[in-house]
Amino acid sequence: MKQIAITWDYYQKNKGVVKAIERRSELTKKALELLKNHKFTWIEELIYNKKEHLEVLKREYTKPENKDFRYILSLDFVQTKKQIESLRSLQLKYPEKYVLCVL
Amino acid sequence: MKRKQSDEAKKINVNIKNQKNSLRIENFIPHTSDGYRASPISLFLNLENYLIISELSYAYGIEKRIKIVGGREVEEDIETLKPILLICKYNKQTKEKFYELKLLKSEDKLEIEDLNISLVQNTISKVGIPTLMKYKTLETIYTEIENKNISIKEIYQKLKETYEKYIYHNNPTFYSFLAVYSLTTYFKEIFSAFPVIYFYGTFGCGKTRTLQTLNCFCHRSFLWGFQTEATTFRYVDAIRGTLLIDNQIFRNSKEILNYLLGYKKDSLIPRLYKAKSFKKETYEVEFFNPSTAYVLNSTDSPDKFSSALLEQFLSRCISINLIKGEPVIKEDPKLEQFTSIREDLYRLKFQIFEKVYERQNELIKSINLTGRERELWLPIFTVASLISDEVLKEMKKYQKELNEIVSENLYKREKILIKAIESLDCENDTYKFTTTELHQSIRNMLVANAQDLIVRDEKEKEFIKFWSLRSVGSLLKNLGFKKKSIRENNNISKKYIIYKSELEELKKKYFENVDSVVTVDILSEHIQENQPSKFQENSQKTQDFESENNSICPNNLSTLSTVSTKIDTSQLSKKHKEPISILRFLIEKNGASLEELIENGYDRDLIEKLKKGGSIKFDSETDKYFAV
C-alpha cells in the first residue's frame, strides 16, 4: 500500500480550482491529481477500520470451527497490527489535520 | 513555478556536492555519527512518542543455510538454537502496543521515529538459562490474539504464599517484601538504580533456601556459585538477569564494589582485551555495564566490613537479617514447579511496564525520601503501589524498620564532623575555624573522653588512622565549605566561615531520617553513659548536666546533640563523665594521681566536688586519689 499525505487545509483550498491545474506547481498538480482520481480517507478512520478487523479476527479465533485455521488468523492479526503501526507512525509525522490518499 | 524548480535543483546540487566533498580519512569515508546505543536484551527507551522494552528468549528452530556442493549452491535446513528478542513499542499518545521480533546479534539497528538506535551486544550466550521466557509465551505475547490478562494482585498473592511456605522468618512483612522484590526485578530497566539485596545470618538460617526460592520467580534469575570477576561481567552482559550469589565472603572484598557498581544503571567498567586484527600485539578497550539485579548472601553481617566499604555498601544495599527456623515445606523448591507463575510474570511485564514507568514518575515526587535512599526504595515502592495501597504502606513501614539499622552507620564521618563544628565557639551565629582546630575538636570528641586507658589508646589509634588533617579538609570540601581570608588582630588568616543556619541545613540533610542520632558508632560509649537509665543513681546531677547542655545548644536534634556540644575539656568531662565512672576508674586503677585523672578527662572541679562530698579521698603519702 502506497501512502501519500497532504494537508486537509491544502485540499480544502485547492479542490475548487482543479480546473486551473495547469497553472499550479508540480507538487500541487500531483496532489490534486491524486484527489481527483483516487479514494482517500482520514488516517484515524483507516486505523479504526483495521482495529475493527482485529476484533473480528479475535472473535473468529475463539470459534471451535476455526481451530485448524488459527495460525492463519493469528498471522493476519500480526499483519494488521503492523499496518496499524505504520499508519500510526505516519500520523505522528503528520498530525491530525492531514488526510491520507490510498492508491 | 520556475523559481521552485530552481530551488529543487539547487538542493540536488548541494547533495551531490556534499557527497563529493565527504571527509575522506585514508581509505575510510565517514558518513553518519556514532549515535545512540542500547543493550538489546535490557532495552528501555523513553523516546518522544514511544516507550520501548525488550525481552529475551531462546528457541529451537530450522535455519536455512546455503551450502556449496560441487560448485553449486544448495539450500539446507539445519535445526539450531537461536536467541530471539521481543521488542515492545508503546505509543504514548494512542496508548497502543506494537511488537517486533529480532534475532539477537552482536550489532543490529532499531528504526523508530526517524531514529537509528544501534543495538550493541558484546556477549551472546550460546544457550539460554531455564528461567528465561519460554518461546510459547513469546509467541502469545507477540501475536496478542491468545494472550491472557494477568492481575498483579493475584500474582503477588501467589508469590507471597509460596515464600511463606518455603522460607522461615519471624517478620511477616519479609514475605511481602520478597514478593514485591521478585515482581520489581521484571521492571529493573525502567529505574535509574536498582537495589542490591544482601541477606546475612548464621549457618543454617535459610540463606541458600531464600535464594533458591527467589530463583524460581525473579526475572531471568540464575543461582551463581563460585565466580570470578571476569565471568560475572560476561554473564551479566549476556543475560542481564537477577544474579543470586550464594555464600560469599565479602568482608574486605573488592568484588563487592563491582556488584555495588551494578546498582546504578549507567555505570560502565572499562576492560582491556587483545586486538586480533593487528600483527603487533595491541589492546582495545571494551566497556561493560554491570547493572543488573543482584542478591547476595553471606554469614558476614555488614558491620564486619571494613569501614571504607561499609558506607558504600549500606547506601546501595537493602540488607536483611535472616532468622533460623523451620519452613513449612522442608524440600527445596524446583524451578520447573513454578514455570506457569514465571511465564505469567513475563506476560505481566509487557502488560504493565508503561504503568510502572508512569507510577515511578508520580512517586518520585511524593515519597518522603532523599538521595540514595530514594533510589534504593523507589522500585519497590512503585511496584507495591501498583499492587495496593496496603502493600505500599507495608513496604514503607519495612523500609523504616530496616533504615533504623542502616542509619547507624551511614554518613558517620559527616555526622561527626558536623557535631565537631557545632561544638566549636560560635560568635554572632558564625563558626570560624581552621582545619587544625576542627581536627582537634574531633579528637576531643572521639578520644579525649575515653575512660579506660586501653580504650583510649585504641580510640587514639583509630582516630589517627581515619582522621588526618587532610581527610578533614577534604570532607569539608565535600560538604561544600571553602576557606575565606579574614582579618584578625591586624593579621590576615584563612579560615572556614560557616553560619549557624548553614550548619542547621546540613544537620537536616545528614540527620534527617535518623530518629535517634545517638547511634554514631564511635561515640556510642559516651552516648550510653548518657542514657536515662544509667543516670538514675545520680538523677539530680544528670538534670544539672542536661540543663547545662540545653543552654549551650538549644537546637539539639537528638540525644547526641545533648552529648557533644561545646568542646572545651572541662565541659566535656562534665558532660561525658558521671561521678560513678571516676569512682570505678579509681577502684580499677587502685588510685590515681591528679595528672592521671586530668589526662583521662576528669577535671579539677569535679574532683574537688567529689572530695568535698566524701566520695573520694586524697592520700598525701602516695600523692594519689582513692575511691571511698
Summarize this structure as a short list of keywords or feature phrases.
heterodimer, A: 103 residues, alpha+beta, 3-stranded antiparallel sheet, B: 628 residues, alpha/beta, Rossmann fold, Arc Repressor Mutant, subunit A, 4 domains, 5-stranded parallel sheet, 4-stranded antiparallel sheet, 23 helices, 20 strands, elongated
Description:
The complex is a heterodimer of chains A (103) and B (628). Chain A has 103 residues and is α+β, with helices and mostly antiparallel strands. Chain A has four helices and three strands. Chain B is α/β, with parallel strands linked by helices. Chain B has four domains: 8-128, no CATH class; 152-407, Rossmann fold; 412-525, Arc Repressor Mutant, subunit A (Orthogonal Bundle); 568-627, no CATH class. Chain B contains 23 helices and 20 strands. In chain B, the strands form six sheets. Chain B has a five-stranded parallel sheet with strand order 9-10-13-8-14. In chain B, strands 2-3-4-5 form a four-stranded antiparallel sheet. In chain B, a hairpin with a 4-residue loop joins β19 (616-619) and β20 (624-627). Classes of the chains: A alpha+beta (103), B alpha/beta (628). The interface between A and B is medium-sized, with 17 and 17 residues.
